[in-house]
Amino acid sequence: MSVTDEQKSLKKPLEAATTAGSSRDQEADFILSLVADDGYHAFSLVAQQINVSHGHATSILQLVAIVSAISGALLPQLSSKPIDVRIITMLGLCFILGSGIASVIGVLRPTWVTEIKPKSQKDFPREMVQNAIKIRSTKSKFVMLSAGCLIIGLLLYGLSAYYVLFFYPGGQ
């Protein structure tokens, strides 16, 4: 059975996909190969990925706002709880607020993909895609940091509720 040219051409993107994440250069080349070296489409593909990070950061901020509002309403009752419950609750709140800060500073801070000028006109589309990938990767790392802080904070909140419900008489 012989391999046709069409089968060879289909195999190329698959081979590139296995190494696409190993460096920005390889990922930029892979993205450009997906869109037939059309710099505008490659650029917009990465821009859509950046928009996904912004959506995740916005969702995290909404959760932070809800938890902060609930915490504000519960603060007077928290003062009557044992010190260990207060510490765990406040640690949880600190992690949750840190999550919001990481979202704002790392993800929602405006970073323009056109800020970094390409070195040569010849490699313009490739370098612009690389710059966009760099920005996307940084924002993605901050989304993961923010989500991790939010999860830790919510777990600490749950732990403090667990202590109140099961270890203190009458929930006191």
Key traits:
172 residues; mainly alpha; rod-shaped
Query: H/E order of the elements?
Result: HHHHH
The multimeric state of the shown protein is single chain
Give the count of helical stretches. 5
Class by helix and strand content? mainly alpha
The largest sheet, given as strand count, sense and whether it forms a barrel, is: none
Query: What portion of residues is helical?
Result: over 70%
Measure the end-to-end span.
77 Å
Radius of gyration: 24 Å
The count of strands amounts to: 0
Low-confidence stretches: 13-21
Average pLDDT value? 83
Shape: rod-shaped
Strand content: under 5%
Give the tally of structural domains.
Answer: 1
Commentary on this structure:
This protein has 172 residues and is mostly helical. The protein has one domain. The chain has helices spanning 5-19, 24-34, 39-78, 83-108, 124-167. Helix 1 (5-19) runs antiparallel to helix 2 (24-34) and helix 3 (39-78) runs parallel beside helix 5.
Layout of helices and strands:
Layout: H1 5-19, H2 24-34, H3 39-78, H4 83-108, H5 124-167
Helix pairs in contact: 1-2, 2-3, 2-5, 3-4, 3-5, 4-5
